UniProtKB/TrEMBL annotation:
Domain of life: Eukaryota
InterPro entries, per database record: CH_dom_sf, F-actin_Monoox_Mical
Name of protein: Smoothelin
Family annotation (PANTHER family): CALPONIN HOMOLOGY DOMAIN-CONTAINING PROTEIN DDB_G0272472-RELATED, CALPONIN-HOMOLOGY (CH) DOMAIN-CONTAINING PROTEIN
Gene name for this UniProt entry: Smtn
Amino acid sequence: MDEKAGIAPLLDVEDMVIMKKPDWKCVFTYVQSIHRRFRNVE
């Protein structure tokens, strides 16, 4: 999804699963980039 939508793949599923508690800053940045990409799509 990331590359097709023009969003940088900032998170890796394996990294998220391995980590006891994912870094909230990374998650927030990723969600923010998705929001910015699609906020003007109708």
